[in-house]
Structures are given as structure tokens and as C-alpha cells.
Amino acid sequence: MTLLLFLVGFVPLACIGALTMRLLQGSSPVLSRMECILYGSIVGPTMVMIMIFILSAFAHVPIHLGGMLLAYALLCIPLLIFGWKQRLPAKRIIRSLSPAQGWNAVHETAKEFQQMKTVHWAGMLLALWIALKLASGMTLLMMDPAYNDDVFNNWNYRAKVIMHEEQLVLALPHNPNAIAGVSAYPPTVPLLKIWIALVSGGWNDRIIALASPLWYLLALGLVWSTIKRSAGRGWALLGAYLISSLPLLLMHGSTPYADLFLALHICIALLPLFHALETTDAQERSTWLRLGAFALALLPMTKSEALLIHLPPILLLVAGVLFLSIHTKTLTVKQALHAALWYAGLLAIVLGTWLTYKYMNGLAFGNAKPIDTALALQPGALRSIGITWVLEANFLLLPGLLITLLLARQRAAFGSPLAVLSLYVITVIVGLAAIFALTGLSTEALRQTGSARGIVQLLPVMVILVTMLLRDWWGALDRERKE
Amino acid sequence: MAVAIIPLSAHAESITNWSFLGGQVGPEWLINGQFKSAADMGGLRIIAESDVNVFRKLQTEHGVDAVEITYLSLQKTEAALIWHLPGTPENEVVQLPISFAASTVPTTKRIDAGRYEEWIRHPDVVGLRLGKGSDIQIIQIRLIGWNTQEKVWNALQSYWTFDTMSPYSVNFLWGPVFTGSPITRTTLYTDLPPKGLYANIVWYALLLLAGAVAIAWAKIFKQRRQSTLAFVMIAGSIWMLSDIRMGAEIVSYALHDIASMNVDNPRDQRFRERASFPAFIHAVAPLVADRGRYVFLTQYPYPFLGLMRYHTHPALPVGPEAAADGLDTWVIFARGDIGMNEAGQLTSEGKIVSPPGRILLEFGPDTFVFRSGT
Known about the structure:
Chain A is mostly helical.
């Protein structure tokens, strides 16, 4: 029943997201049906919550069920009309870019049939193991969804206060004369919790907490579908296993925090750039860039660090992809400009609105604290980061594997479409290390309260990168054997 | 009696046992400083009037990894384990600060000396330094050494020793740690950070070695594919082992929660480190739902104040100073200093803090809800 009530709230948001994804693709669709649902389930809730935020902040529309449905309708009706006018086909082919190298090819020989069977059984075992771990995570979550500090002092508490006041609230009840530090966070996640609460009939910690396991499954789905598209089912299975085996990610799938939410948004802002470089078809590349532009525009509304840490490198990568597209003549200057306009326009709308709101209300631009500009090497911070990122079990051996593969497969890592993922991951990791080692935020590293969560936000991208590099390595070995 | 209570280290391979029971204090023991002492059936009692050293020469064949001291002490006693390194000046000793908790029954202080860099397995002098004012009865001192086989076995067991679900588990997970000492293993995740070797250090070292061997194999025997396959198998096995280890830990969190929460009476539920607090909130929330504000008192403002604020919203918990505004409901959690006098008033250390009223909910001896004027 809890799950059903959650889905009653969530499915309409996913539908509007999937519709948006479909419409953005226009006459040159690139997403498979599964990808459309995955991308839609991520963008849908965020775009509706942004609309609710805009209506509340600038038009004083109350945040109650009526106000939220109004926001939904204001997005849904134009999209439906536009979709109906376009009369786009609902279905499209599922594309695999390199079926011959993947395991999607027709399996005629007994050996290949055996391989299929092995993959099938491995998949079954993997699914059972993931299900057991997820069930444990769900048990922990359902015992007390408000167990962690950021839940009862930030995300859920703000949501409860906003829901009670029916408007955006900056000063929290226990300190009504000061703007709370956590009010500098975008309100998207609290608004999403309110939506679920209102649609499902009232505030219920357990129903609202179900967003986290859903995000966890969406992360698994994104890794699976991305790798399957580019490398085939077998490698997708490996990628799904790798990401499902990361303990700290599972903890975030079992805790109502927002790092996984940000991780998903990073993924859908970044992966279209990777896919855009994978195709040489101008129309398809333009479509990917449109999808990427839309996803990137939503990114700053997820968590504060999205604006400062994740948006700048992705924007640089967008510029790089556009420049490369013109240079290799995959896109004309006009097409590239068109894509750039999509990015600039959508980002201006969302970011402009959010920054205006922040400026109007004097909200900090750091996380819950203002940005620390006094730089000095903080004693012990780098050691602590090393322990948290590499030696503890948070990510098993992923950091070591990533570094090894980036060094061993430099050509694939930096000389193929994977460069988008490699450069992004390296930039953010170096950036995070610098922030923790050089600023007052070092306490987050020394107490281990924030440094590992910074990596959690990168995990889906890191796993996709690692799996694709492994596949490249394996391919090279296979070619050697055949020669 | 004391002999019966002294724990036996059944698994220790080599033990040197110095018992003071029955007044056995041989001439090999040296005590310096100002003190009063009495050696009787119950052990050696020392009342230190200045800093006092109690020590003796050590000539054991086995190495020493841990020291166990069984004692009685009416008060908490600050002391130091002292030892001398062979070859260093005689008056130079190494000190490891320790403290003996007050105890009226024989209690054993277990010190995993081997985990300190300064410790060597064969010191030539071992003893205790007691601070001025100490009053302690030493019953027995045991020096324990484990052989390699036992250390390996302990390390394997420590790999499968799990942490428990904590507020920090969303920020980081310590993960498996190798330690050869059974003493450290029993306090692996309670005496933080865990003392031992992170398993990932071992795995990375192993993988580096395997990688080097695979490269050499590929070059020497021109079998790149086979050597790579072997390396991948090793790396994959380590990954899966780590996954199973951490997956099992998370499953154990869930099993622990189920066991501790699945009791007939909700008041008996013990939820992680917060014990009965969630059950208390559950019982309190309806009582304050219509109060707007209420007084909340606890020894542990973090995290309980935030949790009360969240769970009882829009009712707001405030400090006792706000009671003057006419607040009538007091929620008290784990405050032994607060009680109710015969006139029905709340008192804090004997001082009246509220008008007369009655207890709405009695959750425990120092945990209740009080409403004045009813």
C-alpha cells in the first residue's frame, strides 16, 4: 500500500518527464523506450517542482494540492498540445551502436548460445543478490526514515514546514528571526516530498522516503541502459553489478538524502554529450545535445554544489563538444549555434530564476555555509580524503580500478567519446580534493561528513566510465588474439 | 571468589601470569615513590601518596602482545603502563596512559600493547605508574603473546567482524579491517577509528603484486591473454569478496534492527544508539499536537531536540525559560535531576520549576510528560 501511494504521486511526474523527453527528440529520436522512461523519471519531478517554485516565489501561488496541480497543468497541457500537433510516433527502434562488438548480435553458434545462457544465469544471480541487499536497505529505511541529521534538520523538516505554511519558508520555526543556512539549498527535493505527501493523502515518512530506493534503481537502470547501448548486454550486466556492489551508494538508496538525486541529474546532463560524440549523424547529435541542454538546465536546482562544482565543468565540456563537432564537420556552425542556444536559453530561464530568488533573499552561494575564499592547506585533510576515498570500503576498489584504467587505456579514456566522462570525473575529483584540502570545508573531510558523499554524486558516471574502459581493454586483448 | 571471577584467556598461546593473590609479592617486584601498601589474600593494594612505579624485570621466552590487569578500585584511577626497551638508558621508560574504571568487583583491564608503535614484544622491564592519590588493589597481571597462526586466524575473524548501523553510515563506512589481536577485534567498531589494517591496503598491495607478475608472465612467456585473464580473475575475486563482505554487513544491520524492534511492548524497543527514543516520540507526539509550543528537556540536545522538532511539527519544543510564557506541557527525556514534589510541581535539583500539574505519560524513571494546571 505504501508503495502504491508513492507511485500515485510519482507516476504522473515521470509521465510528464517522459513526454518532455519524447518531444525534445522531435523527428530524430535517439532514446530507447526504457531510456525515455529513465530520463523522464528523473527530469519529470524536477521540472514540475521548478514550476511550483517559480509560481510560489514570483506569483505567490500557495503550495497546497491545488497550487501544485496548477503548476502540473501549466506544464502538462502545453506539452500535450505540442505533442498532439507534432503527432510524433510513440515507438522507436532501439539502437545499439556497436552490436557486432556487443552481445546483441544474433547468436548462431553453440558457443554463443552458451555465452547467452551464462549471462542469463549470471543476471539471475546478480538480481537475487541485489534484491537481498536492497531489501536490507529498505528495512533500514522503513525502520526510521528520519534517522539521519540532514533528514530531520533539512530535507524533510523544510518540507514539513513549507507544507504547513503553504509557501516557501526561509526562516525555520525554531529560529524565526534568521534565514536558515539550509534554506540556501534549492527547494526541489522538499517540494517533491510535499507533492508525494499531498497526492498520497498526507505526510507519511515511509511513503515519502521511497524516493531514495527509486533513485537507486534509476541509477542502476541508467548505468545498464547506457552501457547496453554502447557495449551490449554483457558489459551492461557487469556495469550493473559494479554499481550495485558499491556499499555507500546502497546506503544512499536507503536514506532520504539528496546526493543520489544529484547523481542522477549529473548523469543525464553528461551522458547526452557522450552519446552525441558517439554518433556521426548530425541530426542525432543535435537531438542528444537538446536532451543534454534540458537536463543541464535542471541541474542547479538539485543541490547547491551542482551550481559550483558540477555545472562549470559540464559547461566547458559542452563548449568542447560543440567546437569538436564543428571542427570535424559533424555539425555545421549553424547547427552548433542552435545547440548552444538551447543550452544558453534553458539555463538562463532556470538558473536566472533561481539566482534572482537567491539574490532577492540574501541566500548564501556556498552549501549551507557561504563560500570560503581564504585558501590555505588544511593539515590532515588530504590524508583523511585518501582514507575515505580509497581505503575505507565506501566504494570497494573502484578508485584504484578507475586510476589504473585511466592510465592503462589513455587512448580510449581521452581520445574517444569517453573523454567527456574521463575529463569530467577527473576535474570534479581534483576540484573536490582542492576544496577539502584548501578551504574551511576541510572539516567535512576530517570528520568524514561530506567527502565520500561528494564521490557518491559521481558514482554512476564513474561506473559507466570504468566499464567502458574495461570493455576497451578486453577488446584490445581480443583483437590481439585474433591477429 | 576473586580467583573464580578472573577471566581465562583460553585461546592465548603463551601467557605469563603474575598473581598477587594470597599476598604473593616476590622480591622481583620493585615499588618506588611514596605509598602505603598491603599485600593480602585479595592482592596488592597500593595507595599512592606521590607518583608510584610498580615494576619488575621481564624474562619471558614468548613475545608479549597484550597485557591484562585484574584489579579492584573504589575510584577511577589514572595510570600508565610502563616498559623499558633493551639497550636504552635505564631511566628511560615508555609510558602508555591508561585508566582504571571504578569497580567494586574484580575487573580486567585489557591492553592491546602490540598496536602501539613504541611497544616491542620483548621489553626487559614492565610495570605500572600510578598517579598521586591512586588507590588500587592489583589482583593479577598477565602478559599474553599470540603466535602467527593465532594472529592470522584473528585477522580472518576481524575481516568478518561487522560495524553497526550508525548516523555516520550515510557519510562513510569503515569497512573491513584486519587485526591480529582478539582484544582489538572485540572493540573494533566501538573504539574508533578502528585499529588495524584496512583490508583495501592488503587488496591493493596484492593487486599490485599480481599485476607485476602478470606483466612479467606476459613478457617472458608471450602469453598476454592468459596472464591478463589470471589477473582479472584475481581482481574479480577480490571485488566479489569485498562485495559479499559489505553486503553481509548491511544485511546484518537490517537483521539487528528487526531483532531489536520486534518486541511485544513498543516501550521495550531499542532502536540503534537511540534506544527507546523513537518509541518515546511516538507516544509523546499526540500529547503535544495541539500545544503550539512545549518545554523539552534532555541531557542530549543533539540529536533529540531536532528529532522532537521534526516529529512533533508544527508543535515546537523550546527551552524551560519559555515556560514563563504560560506553556503547560513539559516533555522530559532522560533527566534524572527532574522530578515532581508532593505538591505536584516539577522540580530540578530540588528547585521548583513549574506550577502544580500531573504526569500525562510515564515512560521511564527519568522520562515522562508533565502538564501543569490539570
